[in-house]
Specification:
The protein has helices spanning about 5-20, 35-40, 50-60, 65-75, 80-90, 95-115, 125-135, 140-165, 170-190, 200-210. The protein has one domain: Orthogonal Bundle (Urease accessory protein UreF), CATH 1.10.4190.10. The chain starts with a helix and ends in a 10-residue tail after the last helix. About 70% of the residues lie in helices and about 0% in strands. The chain is built from ten helices and no strands.
């Protein structure tokens, strides 16, 4: 019985985060390809192997890494510091569509989470909103980061399955293979703050810019 309370608390955190970061949560994540649609059209991502390489870069050196830093900063920040962190997050978006992606998902997350959990959240970029909400509910930061990264990666695999001849089994195999990387990136950022912000996914950023003028497209970014 001595361990019952911690187990219940951990389970509640997992279930809450699973709800926030599931495809059913109304943030519209399914509508955003993060530039992947442009890369597919250009022939840069054509297979599970090239998709895996791209996803690894996104998680380790691109949005996955930077979003996790912003999420952690928002989690640790005082209320008066949130607006400054949010402004930095928006400024770090490398293109118009990437800014729209984090802005609209963040707004949708704030609206639903505020109404359902009775929290004060409004007008925050997506990773900042998730970090702030997790802090207000005292959810574990490390777990929040891991599940946030897995949600980003899983959504992009789902995008790829609609754009490429990648079946459901192959897609789920890819998610399973990359999940440990989500854990590793979360652990790495545990000893970092937003002073360590960086991104070297230049081709992905350029693809996101090209998507803005792509003639035929399914996704918003």
């Amino acid at each position: 019985m001595a361990t019952a309370a911690p187990i219940v608390m951990h389970t509640d955190a997992v279930l809450t985060l699973s709800q926030w970061l599931s495809p059913a949560y109304p943030v519209g994540a399914f509508a955003y390809s993060h530039g992947l649609e442009a890369l597919v059209e250009a022939g840069s991502v054509t297979s599970p192997e090239t998709l895996t390489d791209w996803l690894k870069d996104i998680l380790e050196r691109g949005t996955g890494h930077s979003d996790t830093l912003f999420l952690g900063a928002a989690y640790k920040a005082k209320s008066a510091e949130i607006s400054q962190i949010d402004a930095a997050c928006r400024a770090f978006a490398p293109s118009k569509e990437r800014l729209m992606e984090t802005d609209l998902q963040g707004a949708a997350f704030c609206k639903t989470t505020s109404e359902v959990w009775d929290l004060e959240l409004e007008g925050l970029a997506y990773p900042v909103a998730v970090g702030r909400a997790a802090r207000l509910l005292d959810l574990p930061l490390e777990l929040t980061k891991q599940m946030y990264l897995q949600a980003i990666m899983s959504n992009l695999v789902s995008v790829a399955m609609r754009l490429l001849p990648i079946g459901q089994t192959a897609g789920q195999t890819l998610i399973q293979a990359l999940t440990p990387l989500c854990r590793d990136v979360a652990a790495k950022t545990a000893i970092q703050d937003i002073s360590k912000l960086s991104s070297t996914t230049f081709l992905s950023d350029i693809a996101a810019m090209k998507h803005e003028t792509q003639y035929s497209r399914i996704f918003r970014t």
